[in-house]
Amino acid sequence: MKKGSIHYMEKLRLLTFENIVEPLLNESVSFIYFPIEWLDIVEIHYKTFLLTSKLKRLNERLYDMFSDILFIQHNPYVLNENTPWIVCKEPIRKEQLDYIFQSWYEIIHDWKPNKLIEPPKYEWHYDLISNVTVLHDNEIYSKWVPALISHIFCERPLQLENIHEEDIYFSPLRSQNICEAMSEPIKDEKTQDYFAYVYRFEYITRGGENIPLLNVSIGIRRFYQEYNHPDIPLLLRRKRGMILISTPEFASNNKKLRFVKLKVQQATNGIKWIKIFRNLKEDFHIGGEVELEHILQYPKDYMLGANIRVLLPYNERIYKVQGTKIKPGIKVKEREYLFKGFQQKFSYFTLLPECKKLATNNENELFPLIAPKGLETITLEIWSEKISMEVEQALFESEIVLAHIGESSYVLNADSPVLLKIVRYNIEKVLQNPYKMQYCQKYKTNLVEDVMKAVYATAGERNDATLALIAMKNCDGREKIDPKQIVREGFARTNRISAFINLFIGQSVSRKTIINCILSLLEQKGFLKRSWNKINLPCTYVNLSIERISKFDFLPLISQIKGKEISYKLYGNTEWQTIDRLLLNINKHNAFLPQPSKRNDMGIQFKQFVSETLTGILQHAKEQNEQVYFIIDANLRKHWIKELQNKKIDIDTFPEIVPDVLKVPNLNIIRINTSFDVPKYGEIECDDILDGTSLYTDQKGMYYSTGKYSINGSETLQRYILEILPLGVKPVERNYIAKMIHYMCCNSSMLLEKDVHMPYSMHMAKVVKGYMTDIDAREFKEFDDELDVDIMKIEKKDSIILL
Q1: CA-CA distances (angstroms) from residue 728 to 88, 581, 633, 665, 759?
Q2: What pLDDT is recorded for position 419?
Q3: How many other C-beta atoms can be found within 10 angstroms of the C-beta atom of residue 691?
Q4: From 170, 365, 381, 759, which residue has the greatest number of CB atoms within 10 Å?
């Protein structure tokens, strides 16, 4: 399997603007002061941190609900009678302000009764932002800058004759620091369903610069509009859906359309309000008028309603039923015209300079596989009677095996002779309990033991690491926990590495799915693809990841790659392990760390683990006269390694992560970032729009690795961008390091389904997490993003993109 020749884009344009604050200083805003009669109530509190934390969480909800708020101060101890408390583009309606007053009062007046009998006196004031000094703080730019931009954008309709004949009107929306401009629902002529165009605005900074930037994303929002399956839950387990409601009470004072964003959750039938929004009738004079059951029956009527309008943003990641015929993704040309429309409205913002493409090695060969040293025979168990024939066909079709020997043995397509033996088992006994018992963490031990007993009774014990391909019905979301978690851990304790095939009623299993699962099993056993021969350089790659295992437990994991030898070390362990041994013994590991904070000193223990491990690696590399490349995920900067924060790092200086290690000349530190503050991108000078990966660099020493991968072989592409930042590295070595990281992102994993664009070790850390996660850990996001901003629909005529 070798990629054909593809002509990639020669330049990269980041959809990110600089010089964004100064042009906004001449905009006028409205604000009110904190009620003077409340100052005495605030002074009574002696737990100031607790009060401030509660108000901060409340404000996050208020930002979500009321997009007209540009900024609301959460710290009452910095407020006085002349300090702006709530800042808006224009005065908000009394009903909304009453809700804010009551919500704040319930927290600051936390003794009964805390029902606000009479709202405090207030008066709206008006001034230019240049005179409202409370907004002149770098720490709060992220609150009001993108919010103000979304309001300015929505003041006038957008004229885009190339994609829509009529003017397109937009409304502002907000999710804390993510601000949006969403269009009116637009009918798709092909499906007759409705969708909306969405601009997303985020205030960001970049590492080493720390200057205000505006990141612009453009996508479509789809809506639930097909009434079906009235007798089952509509949302996936533990998912919360968004509901947008507009009534006359929510309109701005100049009658512009405004949506209030609320949340719903899974119900036995359909959906229901989350707890905090169940008193809507009292709070907003809705609830009686907005019956969720009625909305689900007539979704399109509510979408276009004259008095009450209700939208249910839809995405397959949240809903378990089909809600629209519109597929995810935005067309390239649509995105191009929409971005030009934004540039015309904000011509005083400056785009970041284009990034230049670097020549990279794009060889991506799978076979022959690189087998683990000393491996001669491996067993593959197929736990299903339904896919046995398909597995054999897939093995030959994909060239994973070269020959059939005997009744059920095959020769693997590897660089050394490895025999693959296949055995088949019935999975019914294994599934007997995981589907019946109610899941929670306290029953986990018993459930896992039941799986182990069933496996032993069916297939016996295994002394060597065995591969298990398990086919079981897809979890439909009614279970609190997907049974696969229990089955995976039970199999691991019987010395079996597992991969799952979801069985859907009335659907056959595709060969591609089977191939991908087998490759995943081989990868977990320690096989590598042939492309790894290109990474065989005289150096050591070290990667640091931290995975959340339960609500309070985190697991630091360090991996080292030396040639084609890869080993892993967990926090609390002294020895290095291969990936298969690590996965099969992970259940015995019980050393974790809580997230570092001001209330604990766990950051010291974490730094000590990193320091001791790095020192050992560096000493050995120094004896061999080799370089060490230490790759760190930027997501660690918030709590674990604050030295990696944008405002603290300098591209030309080593970050003081472990001070004693700085004196070692053979250490190179690289920060990898896939977080929200990585710029979105558009292409220019592109001859073909196909799957592909590229590497770019800008004038300031930032590197961007991009990937575009077809979704299920369609003309819809999933796009990725990863920021690579070598720190304290000589300029002549930066390109080399960036190319090395890029190659590992694109060509190291064996999986055919490209749902990752990250270095190999970071990818495998996610695999490790899958073998030990606390099944009761609620890791769903409060705001589960349903917007398709990185999915592109490609049409054959879309040959040149000029943004």
Answers
A1: 43, 36, 17, 11, 21
A2: 93
A3: 15
A4: 759
Contact between 522 and 414 under an 8 Å Cβ cutoff? The reply is no
C-alpha pair distances (Å), 338 with each of 348, 793, 803: 17, 15, 10
Facing residues of 270 across strands?
A: 233
Question: What gap in Å lies between CA 18 and CA 348, rounded to an integer?
Answer: 10
Residue whose structure tokens are 């290109």:
534
Residue that the structure tokens 């789809």 belong to? 222
Residue 578 half-sphere exposure, CB side, CA atoms within 13 Å?
14
Alpha helices for 30-112 (secondary structure H): 39-44, 48-65, 94-108
Report the distance separating Cα 432 and Cα 570, nearest Å: 34
Question: Count of alpha carbons within 13 Å of 316, Cβ hemisphere only?
Answer: 8
Q: What is the DSSP string of 506-564?
A: T-PPPHHHHHHHHHHHHHHHT-B-GGGGGG--SEEEEEEEEEE-SSS-EEEEEEEEETT
What is the distance between the alpha carbons of residues 206 and 542, in angstroms, rounded to a whole number?
24
pLDDT of 193 reads 92
CB 765 within 8 A of CB 692: no
CA distance 335 to 198: 10
C-beta separation of 214 from 20 below 8 A: yes
Which residues have C-beta within 8 Å of that of residue 645, sequence separation ≥ 6? 637, 638
CB pairs under 8 A, 24+ apart, for 692-695?
692/6, 692/8, 693/8, 693/360, 693/362, 693/742, 693/745, 693/746, 693/757, 694/8, 694/9, 694/12, 694/357, 694/360, 695/357, 695/358, 695/360, 695/738, 695/739, 695/742
Distances (CA, A) of 47 to 50, 54, 599: 5, 11, 15
Write out the two tokens for 55.
């108000």
Cβ-contact 246, 290 below 8 angstroms? no
Nearest to 201 by CA among 219, 178, 183: 178
- Spatial distance between the Cα atoms of 320 and 237, rounded to a whole number of angstroms: 9
Residue with tokens 């009620």: 35
Q: What domains sit in the chain, N to C, each tagged with a CATH number? A: 13-142 (no CATH), 152-351 (no CATH), 377-525 (3.40.50), 530-775 (3.30.420.10)
- Contact (Cβ atoms closer than 8 angstroms) between residue 290 and residue 245: yes
Closest CA to 146 of 201, 222, 91: 201
Q: DSSP labels for 739-777?
A: HHHHHHHHHS---SS----S-HHHHHHHHHHTTT--TT-
**In this structure, is the dihedral angle defined by the CA atoms of residues 269, 275, 279 and 284, taken in order, positive or negative?**
negative
pLDDT digits (tens, 9 = 90+) for 37-46: 888 888 888 7
DSSP calls for 284-333: HS-SSS--HHHHHHSHHHHHT-SS-EEE-EE-TTTBSS---SPPS-EEHH
Tokens of 415: 């660089």
**Burial state string for 194-212 with b = 16 or more CB within 10 A and e = fewer than 16:** bbbbbbbbbbbbbbbeeeb
Confirm if 121 and 33 have CB atoms less than 8 A apart: no
Check if the beta carbon of residue 547 is closer than 8 Å to that of residue 769.
Answer: yes
Residues of the chain with pLDDT under 50: 1-8, 437, 685-688, 778-783, 797-803
Alpha-carbon distance 487 to 447, whole Å? 9
Among 132, 138, 137, smallest CA distance to 204 is for 138
Strand-pairing partners, residue 128, are: 28
Question: What is the token pair recorded at 652?
Answer: 């030309």
Query: For 146-160, b where at least 16 C-beta lie within 10 A, e where not — what string?
Result: bbbbbbbbbeeebeb
The reported pLDDT for the residue numbered 501 is: 87
Going by C-alpha positions, the residue among 382, 235, 395, 391 that lies closest to residue 318 is 235
As given in the structure block, the two tokens for residue 520 are: 């995943």
18 and 143 Cβ atoms separated by less than 8 Å? no
